[in-house]
């Protein structure tokens, strides 16, 4: 099934980093002038983007459309849906920016990223992912660097509803324990670029062992997608001053949260009971409002 109409521009952003320079010029034009592009033929768009007609057609096909005519139709439907456009990021953060400007730019980046990530959710695919996780005997989450922190957050959430969930951020441990998975287990590789070798190796080992494999990534044409039977995509372009995985991490956490809630609902009363029990177990470690704290 091709991309849904209201996700056309979000998909353009999703594949952007994997496009050739000539295709990126087509993407740049569509993102900057979506309404103007509606009136252009394939020849006119190719001229505006300083490329060839065949490049425009190949670009449309990379988005999942049969050709430029289908892409333009999807763009027209998106423009007429009344769905609010993502909040634009007003420029990149500069060394001369004030604290207020930095705050505004980051807030716009977060808003845009989360909005676009939610637009990329394909309901049937998400149902498959949630169903597989809810039925899983064991769940592994693999990630390194900033994605490793997301994997740890996922382990924490799923373990609290009684699931046998583990996060592996060490590449040797990830591959070793991935090889021990079996049919009925689920392995989730988390990588913004989709090309992190350590995560790829672990996910491949899990697939070869018979586990159901999933990935959370930004690039729709990334190597990790080939290893996953279920691929979930995020938005979040990391510019130079955001190379520390700021907006991309937010998108990954949003995907994990959405999966966690969907799985908790599927597992019903037992999940709610375990979640409540785990919360009550640490309540005495918190100082309530109006209470003095003493180090005893």
Mind explaining what this structure looks like?
It contains 13 helices and five strands. By secondary structure, the chain is of the alpha/beta class. The chain has two domains: 5-79, Arc Repressor Mutant, subunit A, CATH 1.10.10; 123-281, 3-Layer(aba) Sandwich (Rossmann fold). A five-stranded parallel sheet has the order 2-1-3-4-5, with helices on both faces. 41% of the residues are buried.
Query: Helical segment tally?
Result: 13
Distance between the termini: 61 Å
What shape does the CA trace take? globular
Mean pLDDT: 84
Radius of gyration: 21 Å
- H and E string: HHHHHHHHEHEHEHEHEH
**Low-confidence runs (pLDDT<50, min 5 residues)?**
1-6, 81-91
Biggest beta-sheet profile: 5 strands, parallel
Which CATH C-level class of the largest domain is it?
Alpha Beta
Q: Pairing-aware structural class of the strands and helices?
A: alpha/beta
**CATH architecture descriptor name of the largest domain:** 3-Layer(aba) Sandwich
Helix content: 40-55%
Q: Based on DSSP secondary structure assignment, what is the total number of beta strands?
A: 5
List the strand order in the largest sheet.
2-1-3-4-5
Total number of distinct structural domains:
2
Determine the CATH superfamily of the largest domain. Glucose-6-phosphate isomerase like protein, domain 1
The percent range for strand residues is: 5-15%
CATH fold-level name of the largest domain: Rossmann fold
Protein name: MurR/RpiR family transcriptional regulator
Domain HTH rpiR-type: 6-82
Keywords: DNA-binding, Transcription, Transcription regulation
Domain SIS: 129-269
């Amino acid at each position: 099934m091709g991309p849904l109409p209201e996700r056309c521009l979000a998909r353009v952003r999703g594949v952007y980093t994997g496009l050739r320079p000539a295709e990126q010029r087509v993407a740049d034009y569509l993102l900057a002038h979506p309404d103007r592009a509606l009136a252009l033929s394939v020849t006119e768009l190719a001229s505006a983007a300083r490329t060839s007609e065949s490049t425009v057609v190949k670009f449309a096909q990379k988005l999942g459309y049969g050709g430029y005519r289908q892409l333009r139709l999807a763009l027209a439907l998106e423009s007429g849906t009344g769905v609010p456009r993502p909040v634009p990021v007003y420029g990149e953060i500069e060394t001369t920016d004030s604290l207020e400007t930095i705050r505004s730019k980051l807030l716009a980046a977060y808003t845009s990223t989360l909005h676009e990530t939610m637009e990329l959710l394909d309901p049937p695919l998400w149902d498959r992912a949630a169903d597989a996780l809810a039925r899983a005997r064991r769940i592994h989450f693999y990630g390194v660097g900033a994605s490793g922190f997301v994997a740890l957050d996922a382990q924490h959430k799923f373990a609290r509803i009684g699931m046998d969930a583990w996060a592996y951020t060490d590449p040797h441990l990830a591959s070793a324990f991935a090889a021990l998975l079996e049919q009925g287990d689920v392995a989730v590789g988390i990588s913004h670029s989709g090309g992190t070798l350590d995560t790829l190796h672990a996910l491949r080992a899990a697939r070869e062992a018979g586990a159901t494999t999933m990935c959370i990534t930004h690039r729709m044409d990334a190597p990790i997608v080939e290893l996953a039977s279920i691929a979930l995509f995020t938005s979040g372009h990391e510019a130079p001053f955001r190379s520390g995985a700021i907006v991309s991490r937010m998108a990954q956490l949003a995907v994990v949260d959405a999966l966690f809630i969907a799985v908790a609902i599927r597992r019903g009363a037992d999940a709610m009971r375990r979640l409540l029990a785990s919360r009550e177990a640490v309540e005495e470690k918190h100082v309530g409002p109006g209470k003095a704290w003493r180090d005893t």
